[in-house]
Write a structure and sequence with these properties.
mainly alpha; 10 helices
């Protein structure tokens, strides 16, 4: 249903972004904000997809909340109007035509907010988990992915973290990212430890 609404919004604005004086998405390719060559490890991509968009690798990324989040964060100011949403989806379509799904995922993973002043999986893993991106376990990555929808809410209500984490562990099996034995190991051990005083320097 969400993708049907997005598809309808796509045709609610002109086909060419310049007709609406929308930002040119191509400037993101040379932006200092991203290192598009640093594609995140597969387990990071899978954890994000399990949390945010189970169809990300199977459908046109313009209709993905991941692509639309990149648009909101770097191209337009988020507004709660139908016109603004239509423009957001139009820009997400431009983004999907210009960048590969892996590049869009990289933009998202490098800057998404993960609580405690941490933006991006690399910083959050280092400061909140005490590990480096390249050395992170699936449990650590999946624990951070659990925070994506509402990091501040999970900080205030940590008891809500395990059920969401377990749901994502099962979701990964349904998406064929990992097998049932891995899912049982994840749910049996529970979420990875988040350092109680772990915070990023950006806050």
């Amino acid at each position: 249903m969400i993708r049907l609404i997005a598809f309808a919004c796509l045709f609610a604005v002109p086909a060419h972004s310049e007709e609406l004086n929308l930002p040119d998405v191509t400037h993101l390719r040379n932006s200092d904000l991203f290192d598009l060559s640093a594609v995140p490890p597969l387990i990071v991509q899978q954890a994000i997809a399990a949390s945010e968009d189970r169809d990300y690798f199977e459908t046109f990324p313009a209709f993905s909340p991941i692509s639309q989040a990149v648009v909101r964060n770097f191209l337009v100011s988020p507004q709660r109007t139908l016109t603004a949403k239509a423009m957001e989806i139009r820009l997400a379509a431009d983004l999907a035509n210009e960048f590969t799904p892996e590049e869009i995922m990289t933009m998202y993973a490098e800057h998404v907010y993960l609580g405690a002043g941490c933006y991006g999986f690399s910083d959050a893993l280092e400061h909140r988990m005490g590990t480096r991106l390249e050395q992170a376990t699936l449990a650590q990555v999946l624990t951070l992915a659990t925070l994506l929808r509402a990091p501040m809410m999970f900080e205030s209500h940590p008891d809500r973290l395990p059920p969401r984490y377990n749901s994502l562990a099962v979701q990964g099996v349904l998406m064929e990212f990992w097998d049932a034995d891995t899912s049982r190991e994840l749910t049996g051990a529970g979420p990875a430890e988040i350092l109680p005083n772990g915070r990023c320097l950006t806050e």
